[in-house]
Design goal:
The complex is a heterodimer. Chain A is an alpha/beta fold. Chain A contains eight helices and twelve strands. In chain A, the strands form three sheets. A six-stranded mixed β-sheet of chain A has the order 6-7-8-3-9-10, with helices on both faces. Chain A has a four-stranded antiparallel β-sheet with strand order 2-1-4-5, covered by helices on one side. In chain A, helix 4 crosses helix 5 and helix 5 packs parallel to helix 6. The radius of gyration of chain A is 18 Å and the shape is globular. By secondary structure, chain B is mostly helical. Chain B is built from 14 helices and no strands. Classes of the chains: A alpha/beta, B mainly alpha. The interface between A and B is medium-sized, with 42 and 26 residues.
């Protein structure tokens, strides 16, 4: 159970988050939606100590993240940034980094097993000795996701994980995220720009506007009015085969 | 290298790690061979068995004296200083996220030169002409401790400014490299100004100091450098996984539990310390810190479990070989080691860049 209460953060004197509160349960896949500059990435990085929030609190399974050590919070919360910089690292070593929060002196045989199993699970077993920068965008993103999963977190934070992927890889990636979240009871917060991808793959939605939560909840909070207020676009929502879709314009 | 043909049998991860151990073992053997060979070469030629016997303390009186008092201190200084500069370069390149970082590109060496020049010219610590000996030793430093101390203070000053900027002004690691470039240019200018107003003999002393000389350190000083370098090496090796996490950027490293700010601060301070002590004792030896890590990356990659020891070994090998070259190319005169490493290091660096460009 993830509880975010009254979180605030400012870059210098410019407030970006002005008291953000919402919660998510295990297995939930929560889309963080909003315009550029609404504070989505800032929100994500305030949750796991990459940035220190000015006020408010984050609790994971009842424990305050601010009171955890760095290694403890790394065992509780995993993060995949927008940009992957692990260029020349081999796939296996990149995934092995996810076991770092558990390492004392070095990786144990168990760490190797967990990584190997995860690579096989995401279908990258045969590529394990390739440098990450020789992979396709979709494969590289899967490596980052595998690294986050071997951290065995309770909360997974994804910052625009699909922005450089083709449509097939976008859905495959989000499908994998949803499935891993459900089977391992991990809560996922994902910053997404593609509304339809969010509607298709996420169970819950948080709209951010001007540093505040405009609306949060299940698919029922995604309304034409919300899209007009948050994105300042005219969109109509249609239902096709029981699923909601946004048609813009 | 890995076989990347489709369908080629994929080597297992343990084989892949084993190969990296082999690289380390190979470098260690090359270093031992280079050191023994270097000790054997000189005006009174010694055979390899004689050298080996003397090193383990079983040589005849005269051979033992030559090996232990004349040849070995130079070679061991080469190993320790080469390893220290390469370690500093390797770790600075990682924590500053910049492949051009090293003690000589960040101004640590230039700070040391400025300190030495200040001591020699303004504090009268140098300059004495002894006409009876050959050109390279005609100019001696009368007060080596003062010169060493000032050189050390000069390099620490550079580090303090760079680290101060990062702590107080919160500048990015990339800007720290820029600050280093600015400082090194400032110190070079300062050294030039001091030289401009000094008399000929003092200028010659300063120039001689900046050339670098591995023969300046005695066993006592070698022991000090070796202990500091070893302690820094152990700290770096202990943090090898943190450096690996830093390869993914500082946000990723933080999310993996690395105390990024503290890691950068302590690593930079240790790198500067070992580079400053080395430079203070033997003078400016540039380029080794920059190229040694780049020379081993094609073999061990960016994995700091192996990159840190491999860089240290490579740095030691380069400096031992450069020292040998400096004594043998124009024997009996000894070429300035610092000039030689820059002169030979730059083409190697260009080759590495060229090869990387071709591969892409």
């Amino acid at each position: 159970m993830i509880e975010i209460q009254n979180l605030s953060f400012a870059y210098g004197k410019r407030p970006v988050l002005k008291g953000v509160s919402f919660s998510a349960g295990p297995g939930d896949c929560v889309a963080i939606l909003g315009n550029n500059g609404a504070g989505k990435s800032t929100l994500i990085t305030c949750l796991n100590k990459i940035r220190t929030p000015d006020g408010g609190s984050v609790h994971v399974d009842g424990r305050n993240v601010a009171e955890m050590s760095r290694a403890e919070s790394a065992r509780t919360i995993a993060y995949v940034p927008q940009k992957n910089e692990l260029g020349q690292t081999t796939v296996f070593d990149a995934v092995l980094l996810g076991r770092k929060p558990y390492m004392k002196w070095g990786p144990t045989p168990q760490d190797y097993e967990i990584c190997q199993a995860m690579l096989d699970r995401v279908g990258l077993g045969p590529l394990k000795l390739r440098p990450v920068n020789e992979l396709s965008g979709g494969e590289a993103q899967k490596v980052m996701l595998a690294r986050a999963f071997v951290q065995q977190p309770r909360l997974l934070l994804l910052d625009e994980p699909t922005s450089s992927l083709d449509p097939r890889n976008q859905y495959e990636m989000m499908g994998l995220v949803g499935e891993m979240a459900r089977t391992n009871a991990i809560a996922v917060l994902v910053v997404l720009h593609d509304l339809n991808l969010a509607l298709r793959c996420c169970s819950h939605f948080v709209f951010l506007k001007d540093g505040l939560v405009y609306a949060a909840g299940d698919a029922s909070v995604v309304t034409e009015q919300a899209l007009r207020d948050v994105y300042e676009i005219d969109a109509s929502l249609i239902t096709h085969q029981g699923k909601k879709f946004a048609v813009i314009g | 290298m890995l076989d990347k043909r489709p369908g080629a049998a994929a080597p297992s991860y343990s084989q892949y790690i084993f190969r990296k151990w082999l690289v380390l073992l190979g470098l260690l053997l090359i270093l031992c061979a280079a050191a023994v060979f270097s000790i054997s070469v000189g005006s009174s030629g010694l055979s390899i068995p004689q050298v080996l016997a003397a090193v383990v303390g079983r040589g005849s009186g005269q051979t033992g004296t030559i090996v232990w008092n004349i040849r070995m201190p130079r070679v061991v200084t080469g190993m320790v200083v080469g390893a220290a500069l390469a370690l500093a370069g390797c770790v600075m390149q990682n924590v500053l996220r910049n492949p051009l970082a090293s003690s000589s590109t960040l101004g640590v060496s230039q700070g040391a030169s400025f300190g030495a020049a200040f001591a020699i010219v303004c504090l009268d610590a140098g300059a004495q002409v002894n006409a009876s000996t050959s050109a390279s030793s005609a100019i001696s430093i009368t007060n080596p401790y003062l010169v060493t101390l000032c050189a050390f203070v000069g390099s620490c000053l550079t580090t303090a400014v760079i680290l101060g900027l990062s702590r107080i002004a919160h500048v990015s690691p990339g800007s720290m490299v820029l600050a280093g470039v600015a400082l090194s240019s400032m110190f070079s200018g300062g050294t030039a100004l001091i030289q401009y107003f000094a008399d000929d003999v003092k200028v010659a002393s300063v120039v001689y100091w900046t050339f670098g000389d591995l023969g300046r350190a005695s066993w006592k000083e070698i022991a000090l450098m070796a202990v500091l370098t070893l302690l820094a090496f152990l700290y770096f090796l202990y943090n090898r996984w943190n450096y690996n996490a830093m390869e993914g950027g500082s946000d990723t490293a933080k999310s993996l539990g690395v105390s990024v700010d503290q890691l950068i601060l302590v690593s930079m301070a240790l790198c500067s310390l070992i580079a400053a002590v080395s430079t203070a004792f033997v003078g400016c030896i540039s380029f080794i810190g920059l190229i040694a890590p780049h020379m081993v990356r094609p073999f061990v990659g960016n994995d700091h479990r192996f990159l840190i020891p491999a860089s240290a070994l490579m740095g030691a090998v380069i400096l031992v070989l450069a020292e040998l070259a400096s004594r043998t190319i124009l024997s009996p005169s000894i070429l300035p080691i610092g000039a030689l490493t820059s002169f030979l290091g730059a083409p190697v660096f260009l080759y590495l860049i060229f090869r990387r460009g071709v591969r892409k």
